[in-house]
Amino acid sequence: MRSIIDIVDLSTDEIDALMQTASDIIADPDKYADACKRKKLATLFFEPSTRTRLSFEAAMLELGGSVIGFSDANSSSSSKGESVADTARVIGCYADIIAMRHPREGAPYIASLYAGIPVINAGDGGHCHPTQTLADLFTIYREKGGCNDLTVGFCGDLKYGRTVHSLISALAKYHNVRIVLISPDELRLPGYIKKEVIEKNGMEYVETKSLEDSLPELDILYMTRVQRERFEDLEVYERLKDSYILTAEKLQAAKPDMCVLHPLPRVNEISVDVDADPRACYFKQVENAKYMRMALILKLLAEKDEPEADGAEDFVESELLKCSNPRCIVAVEQELKHRFKCTDKENGVYRCIYCDAKAK
Ligand SMILES: [Zn+2]
């Protein structure tokens, strides 16, 4: 049974095929209006995220399917202490496919092991949100005609921004993508992503603090929010915050066909005077997300009866290894065994199979 937990679960060929399907849906929506007739999507949202849930629900309804589910943990049995595995087993009896959001990292992966139906991760803590990345890629593809040969700037909170980490991992599979990392020192991209993703894939990159200096060379600008609570010293925040706000005035220095993306919601990091500029693509991203979710639902339901390509995932279990991440699902579900995969043999790095955090 195929589930999508992380964007890296999909090959570039598969992502390209999903983008083809999404383009075809846009061109001829009637062709897909009954594609999921009598199929049910369960939206299991253990934490509220109304817009992601509505996007999944709209996607399934436009495919002619129906939707069941809940939108916060208090209305599910997990509030009575039910494990994610048991919830997944039960829902697997009612529905054909699950979209799950959970505050605990690794929870959708656990669900995928027990549900017996495909599971799409709709966001697990700070870990993964693959359909957001599919929406980002599809927006780049539609605006630029492809995802190769681009200079992509990431601006703002590159330390905690999971959408940034995930999009960089996805772009690493394309050709000749140059990365410009624009952030204050406090919020630079974590070293392990530079090492294990950017350098490992031979991507060219630069780090800078200046949005204004970087703008002229960018084909894509991916904006994120710089959150006040990320700073220990509020004076530093006050000094920096305005330099990472995109305004119509700053945008004058950018290429006429640059494209501005943002995972939304924005607070003030893109001034509203940018909205009318044809380079502002962040609301198109929202629409593109729905089409990519439609394409993904179709793919997973079509592949449901196919045997799995390779066998069970290799993992290591040892008394000496424990997941270091307090937000991991293993931190709350005592029955779960800590399991790891070796990601760097040379330096003996083991990462949790649920949340990808390092073992301690
Ligand atoms: Zn973990």
Characterise this structure.
- It is built from eleven helices and eleven strands.
- Helix 1 crosses helix 11 (282-302), helix 3 crosses helix 4 and helix 5 crosses helix 6.
- It starts with 11 loop residues before the first helix and ends in an 8-residue tail after the last strand.
- The strands form three sheets. Strands 7-6-5-8-9 form a five-stranded parallel beta sheet, covered by helices on one side.
- The protein is globular and about 55 Å long.
- The chain folds into three domains: 7-128 and 287-302, Aspartate/ornithine carbamoyltransferase (Rossmann fold); 132-278, Rossmann fold (3-Layer(aba) Sandwich), CATH 3.40.50.1370; 315-360, Aspartate carbamoyltransferase regulatory subunit, C-terminal domain (SH3 type barrels, Roll).
- The chain is an alpha/beta fold.
- The protein has helices at 12-27, 50-62, 84-92, 107-114, 130-144, 162-171, 191-199, 211-214, 234-240, 248-251, 282-302; strands at 40-45, 66-70, 97-102, 119-124, 150-155, 177-182, 205-208, 220-223, 259-261, 340-344, 349-352.
- Helices cover 32% and strands 15% of the residues.
- Bound molecules: zinc ion.
- Zinc ion binds next to loops.
SSE layout and pairings?
Layout: H1 12-27, E1 40-45, H2 50-62, E2 66-70, H3 84-92, E3 97-102, H4 107-114, E4 119-124, H5 130-144, E5 150-155, H6 162-171, E6 177-182, H7 191-199, E7 205-208, H8 211-214, E8 220-223, H9 234-240, H10 248-251, E9 259-261, H11 282-302, E10 340-344, E11 349-352
Parallel strand pairs: 1-2, 1-3, 3-4, 5-6, 5-8, 6-7, 8-9
Antiparallel strand pairs: 10-11
Helix pairs in contact: 1-11, 2-11, 3-4, 5-6, 5-11
The chain binds zinc ion (ZN).
